């Protein structure tokens, strides 16, 4: 949904259509939301998945 809305706004600029201040504000808000979601996804992955995988690899290397 966010990407579809951003794509639509981007296309308006690319095709030299009117890009109002409200469009800019919408675009800025969408980009900020997307950045927040990406950063949160990276944090969750680093905090949970990578720590567990590193723990497994360390355990396997010590056992071997």
Structural summary, described in words:
There is one protein chain. The chain is an all-alpha fold and 64 residues long. Helices cover 88% and strands 0% of the residues. It has helices spanning 2-14, 21-63.
Oligomeric state of the chains in view: single chain
Strand content: under 5%
Got a strand count?
Answer: 0
For the CA atoms, what is the radius of gyration? Answer: 20 Å
How would the blueprint of this fold be written?
Blueprint: H1 2-14, H2 21-63
Defining key terms:
single chain, 64 residues, mainly alpha, 88% helix
In short:
By secondary structure, this protein is mainly alpha-helical. It is built from two helices and no strands.
